[in-house]
Write a sequence for this structure.
C-alpha cells in the first residue's frame, strides 16, 4: 500500500470515527455510563452510572437546588449547565421534585453541590468516553 | 418523601467516596491502580476537608 493510499484510507475512516466518537460522547452524556458500555468498558460504565446516580439521588433527596434554564442570573445558568451534565438523571430529578429546593438548611446547600458534582463528573466521563472512542485513552 | 438529613461529615464522606470512586475508575486502567488512586483521592479529600474545617473553626465562634 502506497503512502497516498494510506492517507486516503485514513481520511475516509477519519470522519466516520469522529462521528462515532461524538455519538458515544452524546450517549455518555444522556445516560451516564452508556458511552463506556457501548465500548464494552463494563466496569467504567457501571461505576459512572452508580456514582452519578447516587450523587443525583442524594442531592435531590437532600432537597438541593436543581437550576432551570429560564433565569437571568448568569450564576444560576452556570448551575443549570452543571446540573444538566447528569443527562437524563437531571430531568428525572426535576420531574419527581415535588417540594422544591430547601436551601435554608445546610443539607439543601450540600444537595445543590452534590447535584452539580454529579453533572460535572458525568461531563468528565463523557469526555473520557469521547477520547477513548478516538483511541487516545483506554 | 422526607428529606435526607446528613451531618456535615456524612455529606463530606458521601461526596468524597463517590467522586474518588469515579475518578479512580476513569483515570487508571488496571483495577489495582484504580483502587489505589481512589483510596489516595479519598484520603486527600477527607484530610483537606477536615483541615479546612478546623482552619475555619475559630471564625465560627
Amino acid at each position: 500500500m502506497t503512502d497516498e493510499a494510506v492517507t486516503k484510507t485514513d481520511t475516509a475512516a477519519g470522519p466516520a470515527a469522529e462521528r462515532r466518537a461524538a455519538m458515544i460522547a452524546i450517549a455518555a452524556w444522556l445516560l451516564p455510563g452508556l458511552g463506556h458500555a457501548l465500548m464494552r468498558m463494563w466496569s467504567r460504565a457501571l461505576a459512572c452510572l452508580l456514582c452519578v446516580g447516587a450523587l443525583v439521588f442524594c442531592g435531590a433527596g437532600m432537597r438541593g437546588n436543581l437550576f432551570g434554564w429560564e433565569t437571568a442570573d448568569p450564576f444560576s445558568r452556570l448551575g443549570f449547565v452543571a446540573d444538566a451534565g447528569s443527562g437524563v438523571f437531571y430531568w428525572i430529578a426535576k420531574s419527581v421534585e415535588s417540594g422544591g429546593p430547601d436551601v435554608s438548611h445546610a443539607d439543601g446547600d450540600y444537595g445543590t453541590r452534590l447535584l452539580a458534582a454529579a453533572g460535572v463528573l458525568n461531563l468528565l466521563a463523557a469526555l473520557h468516553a469521547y477520547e477513548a472512542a478516538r483511541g487516545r485513552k483506554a | 418523601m422526607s428529606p435526607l438529613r446528613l451531618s456535615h461529615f456524612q455529606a463530606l464522606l458521601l461526596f468524597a467516596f463517590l467522586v474518588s470512586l469515579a475518578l479512580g475508575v476513569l483515570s487508571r486502567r488496571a483495577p489495582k491502580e484504580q483502587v489505589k488512586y481512589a483510596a489516595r483521592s479519598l484520603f486527600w479529600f477527607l484530610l483537606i476537608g477536615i483541615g479546612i474545617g478546623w482552619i475555619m473553626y475559630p471564625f465560627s465562634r
Observations:
- The longest helix of chain B spans residues 31-56.
- Chain B touches chain A through 17 residues (CB under 8 Å).
- DSSP finds two helices and no strands in chain B.
- Chain B has a mean pLDDT of 92.
